[in-house]
């Protein structure tokens, strides 16, 4: 019964925490052709999950090192901008192989950077059971794939969701930066300041995304 409860907890965790990862994937593959998009979603999610399994054992210790979350947050902001530029371009404007592997690279790097909450939550729920950890991280693949497909189709139909997604990614990057050990020690930002920075970055990236998408639609 205890094992079943742990398994159920992991399923719920995957459902709750798959959203931001799915958003990155959906934005990264939006400019690909339909066939490459499906392959990119499945391949990117699978590669990221394999790396998550390898990183689970050391995730907690890594996060305690100063500058790690700061650099991770800056990386997310850069990826959010690059994905925004690529997603707003026409699919045929770049050679398909280059764009495909670039999308895979964005997916893997951003997913690993943003998956700390998922890794730590699953590690805690599994109580150190390797098979439960592997099951939980592997289970996140279908959840992320389904969510990514849904979001990519939504972006095709409603392009405005692209820059809203960029704003959400910027908010995640800002949260990582403001909770880094170095920033906390040097600046000791209050909760209000932290939320203000996250909201400001989200607004800036949403506006930048709107400008880019408006320019490309003309």
Account of the protein in words:
This protein has 218 residues and is mainly α. The chain has one domain. 85% of the residues lie in helices and 0% in strands. The protein is built from 11 helices and no strands. The chain has helices spanning 2-17, 19-29, 34-56, 59-63, 68-88, 96-114, 116-126, 130-157, 160-178, 181-187, 191-216. Helix 2 crosses helix 5 (68-88). The longest helix is centred in the middle third of the chain and has 28 residues, at 130-157. It is globular and about 50 Å long. Mean pLDDT is 75; it is low at 91-95.
How many strands, what sense, and barrel or not for the largest sheet? none
Series of secondary-structure elements, N-terminal to C-terminal: HHHHHHHHHHH
CA-based gyration radius: 18 Å
Helix content: over 70%
SSE class: mainly alpha
Q: How much of the polypeptide forms β-strand, as a percent range?
A: under 5%
Total of DSSP H or I helical runs spanning 4+ residues: 11
Short description:
By secondary structure, the protein is mainly α. It is built from 11 helices and no strands.
Supply database-style keywords.
mainly alpha; single chain; 218 residues
Map the helices and strands:
Layout: H1 2-17, H2 19-29, H3 34-56, H4 59-63, H5 68-88, H6 96-114, H7 116-126, H8 130-157, H9 160-178, H10 181-187, H11 191-216
Helix pairs in contact: 1-7, 1-8, 2-5, 2-6, 2-8, 2-9, 3-6, 3-8, 5-6, 5-9, 5-11, 7-8, 9-11
